[in-house]
Amino acid sequence: MGAFVISRRFNDEYKFTFTSRKGKVIFTSLSYELRFECEEDIEKFKANIELAKFLKFKGSGGKYFFKLMLGDAQFATSRKYSTELLLQKGIKEIVTYASRSEILDFSSNELIFEDEESEEELEEVVE
Q1: Nearest partner of 35 among 97, 102, 94, 104, judged by Cα
Q2: Would residue 109 be called left, alpha or beta, if left means φ above 0 and alpha means ψ between -120 and 50 degrees?
Q3: At residue 118, does pLDDT exceed 90?
């Protein structure tokens, strides 16, 4: 099952991606000023997935992508795909799994996984 992953852009705005079961990014949202706006839009999308439209494009470099529309507003842009079949598989993954996917929040600046040095320092303090 895929997941919605909330993170921050370099300009400190928030965004989310939808990742496949294998961990590949399928689409990236627009920017949000506040984190809860991401969560609200994800929940709105999950509840209204049947209203989503996928506008397919072929870029100048020959790669395929889609813009995800919810109502009349653009919601997200997909990654680039080398073939139209792969693009269609990405869309199928969204339609199949998005409504029941979990939300992961990696937007805080705290380290999620400590590096080895931090673990060694912690072990020295404990001993």
Answers
A1: 104
A2: alpha
A3: no
Taking the CB of residue 65, how many other CB atoms lie within 10 A of it? 17
Phi and psi angles of residue 80, each rounded to the nearest 5 degrees, phi first: -85, 140
Residue with token string 């689409």: 27
3-state DSSP assignment of residue 10: coil
Residues 84 and 121: beta-carbon distance below 8 Å:
no
How many Cα atoms within 13 Å fall on the side-chain side of residue 1? 10
Q: What is the dihedral of CA 26, 13, 73, 68, to 10 degrees?
A: 0
Determine the Cα–Cα distance for residues 41 and 75; give it in Å rounded to an integer: 9
Q: pTM of this prediction?
A: 0.79
**Which CATH code fits 3-126?**
2.30.29.80
pLDDT the model gives residue 80: 95
Domain map (residue ranges) of the chain: 3-126
Distances (CA, A) of 40 to 1, 36, 63, 64, 112: 20, 6, 31, 29, 24
**pLDDT tens per residue across span 28-44:** 999 999 889 999 999 99
